[in-house]
Write a structure and sequence with these properties.
Strand content: 5-15%
CATH class of the largest domain: Mainly Alpha
CATH topology of the largest domain: Arc Repressor Mutant, subunit A
CATH superfamily of the largest domain: Winged helix-like DNA-binding domain superfamily/Winged helix DNA-binding domain
Largest sheet: 2 strands, antiparallel
Structural class: mainly alpha
Mean pLDDT: 88
CATH architecture of the largest domain: Orthogonal Bundle
Strand order of the largest sheet: 1-2
Helix content: 55-70%
Low-confidence stretches: none
Order of helices and strands: HHHEEHHH
Number of domains: 2
Shape: elongated
Length: 129
């Protein structure tokens, strides 16, 4: 099993991972059903095999079927993806990353969203002292 990050996933592989994280586990048929413009069953099986080879998922046998589940908790995967994003595009700058995210989503943020972000910043400030 390779040690890899979510940054090496194709769009379709990310969609599969989203389904597995949402459901906790799924068969190939359930994954296929959850995909937009689903590919063939054999294509889904091939992608699941690749994700397993990359170390992102594993399978268990249940009632003569394979059930697939993520190997890494979603929060850990998020942190890994965010770290990769920050390193790749923002020279490891949290400030630049947050500024860009706020700029991109500023029209969509509610006052409640801004209050929650401010609370996160306040908690980070408190922890840093």
């Amino acid at each position: 099993m390779k040690n890899s990050t979510h940054s090496d996933l194709s769009r379709r592989e990310r969609q599969i991972m989203d389904i597995l994280y949402k459901n906790g586990r799924a068969t190939a048929t359930e994954v296929q059903t959850g995909l937009p413009k689903p590919p063939s069953y054999s294509a889904v099986r091939a992608m699941l095999r690749v994700l397993e080879e990359k170390g992102h998922i594993r399978h268990e046998e249940k009632d003569l079927r394979y059930v697939f589940l993520p190997t890494v908790p979603r929060d850990q995967a998020r942190r890994s993806a965010a770290s990769h994003l920050m390193h790749t595009f923002f020279e490891n700058s949290v400030e630049q990353t947050v500024a860009t995210l706020l700029d991109v989503s500023s029209r969509k943020l509610s006052l409640d969203d801004l209050d929650r972000i401010a609370a996160l910043i306040a908690a980070a400030r408190k922890e840093g002292k």
